[in-house]
User: Fold this.
Amino acid sequence: MKPWGFNDLMVTAAFRYCCGRQTYIVGCCADWLIEQWPNFADSTKVLIQRELEEEFKRDDAARERKDDYKPLGHDCDRAEWERVRGLWRPSKGVKITDKEQHGKRNKNERT
Assistant:
C-alpha cells in the first residue's frame, strides 16, 4: 500500500486544504511538502505545482487590486508558499536549504 493513499490522494487533499488558509497550518504544510517532496509521485508534483502557480496568479491580481481577500492569505502565509514554490523555481522562490530538500530540516529552523 502506498503511504499517501490512492494516487497520493492524501497529499493532494492536505495541500488543497492548506492552500489559502491563514493559520499555523500553512507553515506546517509547507514544511511537510518540502520534506516529503522527493517521495511524491511525479503526477502529484505536477498537480501541486500547477495549482500553486494558479493561486500565485490569483494572489498577485488580488494584491494589485488591493483586495481585502488574498487567495494565498497574509504576507506571512504567502512567504510559506514561496518556500514551496522554491522546489521548482529556486531562483524565484525562497531558497530551499539542502537539509530541507532532503528532509532533515530542524522543525524550529526558518530559512
Q: What stands out?
A: The radius of gyration is 14 Å. The helical segments are 9-18, 25-36, 42-65, 75-85, 98-101. The longest helix spans residues 42-65.
